[in-house]
Amino acid sequence: MKPHVSDFERGRNIVRVLVVLAIVLGISALMFTQPDSREQMVLVFAAFACVIAVIVVARLMCVCPHCGKRIVSGVLVLKVCPQCKHSLITGQKVKTKH
Ligand SMILES: [Zn+2]
């Protein structure tokens, strides 16, 4: 059986790729193009589009599979929903140590 991949995890993977892409495009725009050139404009625009896509994907997909709470901050690091303490990956309850 294939391991279940939640929308949250899929969204997080997309966000991760887009964030890296936005950084690479942004750095390329600063390092490898002439200031105020057409190439720089294109790269800056592409980086900006990636940032917009990150926001859209995060809003649509990065929600807790258990309680539906939207995970806004810490999308890339959180493993457990801060609201209901269920795993964001599997939706299962996470046992907490006392
Ligand atoms: Zn939750």
Task: Describe the 3D structure.
Helix 1 runs antiparallel to helix 2. The longest helix is centred in the N-terminal third of the chain and has 25 residues. The two termini are 33 Å apart. This protein has one domain. The relative contact order is 0.17. The protein has two helices and no strands. The radius of gyration is 17 Å and the shape is elongated. By secondary structure, it is mainly alpha-helical. The chain binds zinc ion (ZN). Zinc ion binds next to loops.
Keyword list:
2 helices; 50% helix; 98 residues; binds zinc ion
Write a brief caption for the model.
With about 100 residues, the protein is an all-alpha fold. Helices cover about 50% and strands about 0% of the residues.
Report helical residue fraction: 40-55%
Could you spell the SSE succession in H and E letters?
A: HH
How would you sum up the global shape? Answer: elongated
Low-confidence stretches: none
Head-to-tail CA distance between termini = 33 Å
Number of strands: 0
Instruction: Compute the CA-based radius of gyration.
Output: 17 Å
Helix/strand/pairing class, anyone?
A: mainly alpha
Indicate the mean pLDDT: 90
Q: What is the total domain count?
A: 1
Which molecules are bound besides the chains? zinc ion
How many helices? The count is 2
Strand content: under 5%
Q: Strand count, sense and closure of the main sheet? A: none
